Amino acid sequence: MVTPRQKREQPAAGGGRRPTIKTVAARAGVGRTTVSRVLNGSPLVSDEARTAVLTAIAELNFVPSSVARSLVTSRTDSIALVIPESESRLGSEPYFSAVIRGVSEALAGTQLQLLLILVRDQRELDRLQEFLTAGRVDGVLLVSVHRDDPLPGLLEELGLPTVLAGRRSAEEPLPHVHSDNVGGSAEAVRHLLARGRSEIATITGPLDMDVGSSRLRGWREALVEAGAPAGESLVAPADFTEEGGRLAMRALLERHPRLDAVFAASDVMAAGALAELRRAGRQVPDDVALVGFDDSIVARHTEPSLTSVRQQVEEVGRTITKMLFQEIARGGSARFPVVLPTSLIVRASS
User: Fold this and answer.
1) Domain spanning 181-312 has what CATH number?
2) Looking at the domain that runs over 78-178+314-339, which CATH code has it been given?
3) Where's the HTH lacI-type domain (predicted)?
């Protein structure tokens, strides 16, 4: 794994330190985003601000070689896969490793180098902005997108070719790839209804992510269509972690001790729910049927094995990479979404 490290400031001519974008911004009296826009030729800068930035650049002799290369449209032959998550989440969630495999497959046979970048806090976001503004990569793949995530907007401002795995909302302007989360979730709930289950709860992913809200929407649409209960008390938000699934299952059992089915928006959360059901003395599937989402390795190794909505995660990785190739080659013309189909894999848990 290669992560960007902020270059140590080297002595500049005259004994000082080599200036950074932060230094330029401070001298010009503007924000770092404004400096980034000026360096990338964005029209979203006032003449006054542009003059201040260019004056500061001249006074500070701020011309990193990587910026100089980018200004003459030279290529770096590298792309960044940016994941705004912690190492623990990256290691425990099979989704990320599958995306990385897909990206790596799409890069095989090319000359492009892949940089994997985790962004866990504001300090690392600032470092990433410095790194990207310096023109170190030709494009960015962004995975695990939240509604208020500043990264997509920053990438648009920088003018970097960018493709998302997922989206911030149905109005996402950047090119992106996502699974049919609504349809897959609805299929899971219809399966539970067909098995005679009548009180079907759901454990959602984070609702500030389109993937979380879309899977909740699929659950609700299928229940409303069938005239089954779909009240808020049957909804337990979680965070795509096993512990989150366990805690959400506990809350659902307290509110609905007679529930007979649960749709969890990920296999990892379903595994946590399964552990909590076992602790509460509820048998799966006799007392409570359980369905997950992803059809990851987790689904095949629970006891009982987990019915799950299969999504083509490696294909997500391959597709976003191929789309990024088009973005880089055509200068940002591939502004379209791709929706990959899902399918229900029925196992013993339902």
Assistant:
1) 3.40.50.2300
2) 3.40.50.2300
3) 19-73
